[in-house]
Amino acid sequence: MATFLLTLFMGIIPRILAADKLNGVGSTGLYWDCCKPSCSWSQKGPFSTHPVQACNKDDSPLNDLTAGSACGQGGTSYVCNNQQPWAVNDTFSYGFVSAYIVGATEYDWCCSCYEISFLNGGIQGKRMIVQASNTGYDDPTRDIFGVGAPSAPDYASACLNRYNGAGDGFLGENGTVLTTRDECNDLPMPLQAGCFWRFDWFNDARKPNMTFARVKCPKVLTDITGCIRDDEQTFNTTSGTKGNSLAESGSMSLLAISLFFAVWTLCFTL
Prior knowledge:
Layout: H1 2-17, E1 23-30, E2 54-55, E3 78-79, E4 86-87, E5 92-100, H2 106-109, E6 113-118, E7 127-135, E8 144-147, H3 156-162, H4 168-171, H5 189-200, E9 209-215, H6 219-225, H7 241-257
Parallel strand pairs: 1-8, 5-7
Antiparallel strand pairs: 1-9, 2-3, 4-5, 5-8, 6-7, 6-9
EC number: 3.2.1.4
Family: Belongs to the glycosyl hydrolase 45 (cellulase K) family.
InterPro entries: GH45_Enzymes (IPR052288), Glyco_hydro_45 (IPR000334), RlpA-like_sf (IPR036908)
């Protein structure tokens, strides 16, 4: 009982601090590790509906929310392949990220959405609306959003297991980083679209900086993850107004040209 009370008390403080962390400046990266997203555990956020959808090895939705991750736990749960990034036009994309916001906890960011605007790296001026489906701890001193696009997996063994050893150039034990667009063709077919996005829209940028502001999640993202925070209906922000307009118009464009959505995930064990 004492341990529970201590954990609860310590958890209140960062959630109060998080109210000031809806907007900020941070950096981004790319990753894809095939692991179950951290926000796929039901206790990782205030969502009474459903945490982030995870999938079986064959990419079918997994109904067992307690299934262990294929990374580090020897479980059967992987990230769903439809959680990869996609472009709506030359300057706007949708996607999913592993988030880390200083002064907050994953209970604050899991399944929340953000409008991010890139500041450098050759993609300045481009923007995304993303949903936080995972948690990343690359640098706990900075705000970081990791975009889940095929690059170099942190847990190559899970990807090798999922695809039966295919795609060694990207999924090899040494975590080989793709360097050219043509190498995307060597990946397993389900990962190729996200890889092409990395070169075609993201311009293979290396950890560009960005500004971020929380916005109300667009349906095109929550339809993929199945996750809607309990505070979504009461969430208000002025900075997200423009982002919400983009989300709505982008959704119509997306449906019109039959593109797919994408998510990115970092393995995070209990």
